[in-house]
Specification:
Layout lengths: L12 E5 L16 H15 L3 E5 L19 H8 L4 E3 L5 H9 L5 E4 L6 H5 L2 H8 L4 E4 L22 E3 L1 H14 L6 E5 L8 H7 L5 E4 L4 H7 L3 E2 L9 H14 L2 E3 L3 E5 L8 E5 L2 E2 L4 E5 L1 H12 L3 E5 L12 H15 L3 E4 L2 H9 L8 E2 L4 H7 L5 H7 L1
């Protein structure tokens, strides 16, 4: 697969699929600009070389065409400031205005198109729609790793209309860093899996059992493991139909010599509320009317010790309900352990989604090796699936 470093963009119009699906508050202000910042080096490389840039992205999940709250016009000012150039905006992603503004675009200039998901043809991977998008540029760049697992018009289908196509720096870095974990990781390699459901992570846990030395399980999914072992988990999250699967995963870990590490204590609450009463109990000893919302202090020690002695670390999923400060202690402690291990020379990859939000909100984003913007795409790549957006660039 070719990268943007394989091309000279002078006098060329690059149509770039970026991932500007950023969270906005009720005043349409960006609350986390990670994805915006990630795309800047790719855009700057092209305009600094004397090329012009046409950006396309989605924002949110509009249901029935254009919706004001999902308009990409809300990010124009922030993007202009970050790039140091005044970004033009087209009120549509296809049609006369988009065509005219793309045609008039001079070298060193940037045009942002309106949300591609205002058309249902985008998510359907409609070829005629993709061709209209493709007609705006003469070289295709995909830098939206976060949507590479979707065969949508702008992420995959548009690529077939270009002789010249390549990936941007975000896409390149995501794939390079994922391979550092999946390929030949420096050992010991520890994978930390958190989040709510075992079912969301079955395939990646299965794959990691072939490469990891240690597999740490935390978050809501750990209670299904606990219940399967005969423990009491009260009102904690449970996937009853996955209990047999957790036993199979434990057996597989043992057979492959992988150290599967589960919580030994848990912080429980009498209600799912930020101000709920809380206490710490041993794992598997949760009273009937209580629920586990975080890992306990002994588990923090156990997990942190393993992390600090690791040379490669993958973290995907929080250790508890980190949106509630009272139950964010475990997630914060894991983040600090990762920073400490990275400072000692370990390679640490944060696997997108909630883990990326947690590490960035804590201010540790630049203290770990790499924070993925991918989320679902990274998980699917690590599960061994072919990502349509990547495959389209390799054809």
């Amino acid at each position: 697969m070719r990268t943007i470093d394989d091309f000279n963009f002078r006098n060329r119009k690059a149509l770039i699929r970026v991932d500007f699906n950023v969270p906005l508050d009720e005043n349409s202000q960006i609350t986390d600009d990670t994805r915006l910042r990630a795309a800047i080096p790719t855009i700057k490389k092209i305009i600094d070389e004397g090329g012009a840039v046409i950006l396309m992205s989605h924002l949110g999940r509009p249901k029935t065409g254009p919706e004001e709250k999902y308009s990409l016009k809300h990010i124009v000012a922030d993007l202009s400031e970050k790039l140091g150039v005044s970004v033009h905006f087209a009120n549509d992603c296809i049609g006369d205005e988009a065509q005219e503004k793309a045609k008039a675009l001079g070298n060193g200039e940037v045009l942002l198109l309106e949300n591609v998901r205002f058309y249902p043809e985008e998510t359907k991977g409609d070829e005629a729609f993709a061709e209209k998008l493709a007609s705006l540029g003469d070289i295709y760049v995909n830098d939206a790793f976060g949507t590479a697992h979707r065969a949508h018009a702008s992420t995959t289908i548009a690529a077939k209309f270009f002789a010249d196509k390549c990936c941007g720096y975000v896409m390149q870095q995501e794939l390079v860093n994922a391979e550092k974990v999946l390929g030949e990781p420096t050992r010991p390699f520890t994978a930390i899996m958190g989040g709510a459901k075992v079912s969301d992570k079955i395939l990646i846990i299965d794959r990691l059992l072939d490469v990891a030395d240690n597999l740490i399980i935390g978050g809501g999914m750990s209670y299904t493991f606990s219940k399967a072992k005969g423990g009491n988990i009260g009102k904690s999250l449970l996937e009853a139909d996955k209990m047999d699967l957790t036993k199979e995963l434990e057996a597989k870990a043992k057979a492959k010599g992988v150290n599967l590490i589960l919580p030994v204590d848990t912080v429980i609450a009498d209600d799912f509320d930020k101000d709920a009463n809380k206490k710490t109990v041993p794992a598997g000893q949760i009273p009937d009317d209580w629920q586990g919302l975080d890992i306990g202090p002994e588990t923090i020690k156990l997990f942190s010790e393993t992390i600090k002695n690791s040379k490669t670390i993958l973290w995907n999923g929080p250790m508890g309900v980190f949106e509630f400060p009272a139950f964010a202690v475990g997630t914060e402690a894991i983040a600090k352990s990762l920073v400490s291990a990275t400072e000692k020379g370990a390679f640490s990859l944060i696997g997108g989604g909630d883990s990326a939000s947690a590490i960035n909100n804590l201010g540790y984003g630049d203290k770990v090796s790499y924070v993925s913007t991918g989320g679902g795409a990274l998980l699917e790549y690590m599960e061994g699936k072919v990502l349509p957006g990547v495959a389209a660039l390799e054809e």
